[in-house]
Amino acid sequence: MSSPPNAGAVPPELQAPLALTPTPPAKGVTQSASLWTWIGVLPFFVFAMLFLILPTAFLMVGAFQDPQGHFTLVNFRDLFSEGVMDAYWISFKVSAASAFGGAVIGSLLAWAAVQGQLPGWIRPTLMTFSGVASNFAGVPLAFAFICTLGRVGLVTVLLRKYTGLNLYSTGFSILSFTGLTLTYLYFQIPLMVLIVTPALDGLKREWREACDCLGGTAFQYWRYVALPVLWPSVLGAALLLFANSFGAVATAYALTGSSLNIVTILLYAQIRGDVLHNPNLGYALALGMILVTGISNGGYIWLRSRAERGRR
């Protein structure tokens, strides 16, 4: 017996609808969207050209010139003089100390707010304060610390009145290496909190639960799970803090004046000063600073990409 001609055929109501090929947008529409996209980022490129690329090019040209505009390498030879090397070394020590202190304290604060069993209002309050304090620098910050830890500052007077401790009799001075480092910590710690908080948010709760189910301790969790994930973010943030403090000038100049010979103050003296006035040497100093901060920022970018790959 022969089968009917439509035997085995799928009924029309069960057939999948044919996929519709999307109609490509018109060529003029695509070009218009692309044009508007470039117009949207145009202010960024203009800003970068005016305030980053052109000034850097001007510094590079001036660093290889003498006051008469002739080509010379004397400016780079003078970078290795004793006074300039001392300025770089002091700046390196201040930046390293403030970056280390900011990284440690900021990481602990962020961990307490994110992973600790604290009231819910702590984290938004800390993040709001960090966003404000990380941008509080320059002359206002220097004035605030002079009023707080200066010879007649509020904290200095209260300590002397109620505890009998005279800070300045111990050798402390707000105009010293220690004073400048403490001042930098005011904006370094909040900046570290802002940077490392997303990394702490990336620690999944399932990882800790899996460690507990396998009989692992809290030390083992941090040693073998959390720290391997977090260390690129923490180290990269510390490098960013180093670059941030290495290039600071307004706070240091307003706080210490010329009593602490850091490289940013020496640069300012070479370009704008009346005694140490050698702008071309100042340009060479600036190029050296760009090299140091560029290496730090490059390390931060590399470590950040490594941390993102690790979280994925």
UniProtKB/TrEMBL annotation:
Where does the record place it? Answer: Cell membrane
**Any coiled-coil ranges, and where?**
none
**Cellular component per GO?**
plasma membrane
* ABC transmembrane type-1 domain mapped to chain residues: 88-302
- Lipid bilayer topology: Multi-pass membrane protein
The family this protein is said to belong to: Belongs to the binding-protein-dependent transport system permease family. CysTW subfamily.
Protein name in UniProt: ABC transmembrane type-1 domain-containing protein
